[in-house]
Amino acid sequence: MKMNNILVPIDFSDGSNLALSTALDYAKTLNSKIHLLHIIQPISYPIGMEIAHYNFSDVEKDMIDTSRKNLKDLIKDPMYSQISFEIVVLNGTSSSNSIIQYSIENNIDMICIATHGSSGLEHFLFGSTTEKVLRKAECPVLVVRKK
């Protein structure tokens, strides 16, 4: 099976680090490129409030820059030098839709994603990004669960 592109959504949790580790094993074996994707939720701008000297576009830029730096820090180990990476930070209102759209637009062959194992009321109210990606993705999805 040929896997040129593996997508790993990263939220900087232990679970997403485990998903990255799993994807790295595949990438080494299959000579694949790993796409690290972090999604930033848009900032809600206050309406009707006077906020002196505060520029929200600068806050968003700082969030993107910090996320990009943190993604680069995840892969700075010299043992990853033989693996090709694409680092992407997107603004998106829906993480699952952003992941799926990115996978389609970038010819992703597999998504390697973590599940946090939420259940009960939390799962009912918020749903699961992983579950939505599983249902809607057009490519195979490998779900990694933290023990």
Plain-language structure description:
With 147 residues, the protein is α/β, with parallel strands linked by helices. The chain has a single domain, classed as Rossmann fold (3-Layer(aba) Sandwich), CATH 3.40.50.620. The protein is 42% helix and 22% strand. The protein has five helices and five strands; from the N terminus they run βαβαβαβααβ. It has helices at 14-30, 56-74, 95-105, 120-126, 129-136; strands spanning 5-9, 33-40, 84-91, 110-115, 141-145. The chain has a five-stranded parallel β-sheet with strand order 3-2-1-4-5, with helices on both faces. It is globular, with a radius of gyration of 17 Å. It starts with a strand and ends with a strand. Mean pLDDT is 85; it is low at 121-126.
- Treating each run of at least 4 consecutive H or I residues as one helix, how many helices? 5
The CATH superfamily title: HUPs
User: What is the level-2 CATH architecture name?
Assistant: 3-Layer(aba) Sandwich
Topology order in helix (H) and strand (E) letters:
EHEHEHEHHE
Quantity of strands, as a count: 5
What is the CATH fold-level name?
Answer: Rossmann fold
β-sheet strand percentage: 15-25%
Largest sheet: 5 strands, parallel
> Helix- and strand-based class?
alpha/beta
List low-confidence stretches. Answer: 121-126
Supply the number of structural domains.
Answer: 1
Descriptive labels:
alpha/beta; Rossmann fold; 5 helices; 22% strand
Tell me briefly what this model is:
This protein has 147 residues and is an alpha/beta fold. It is built from 5 helices and 5 strands, in the order βαβαβαβααβ.
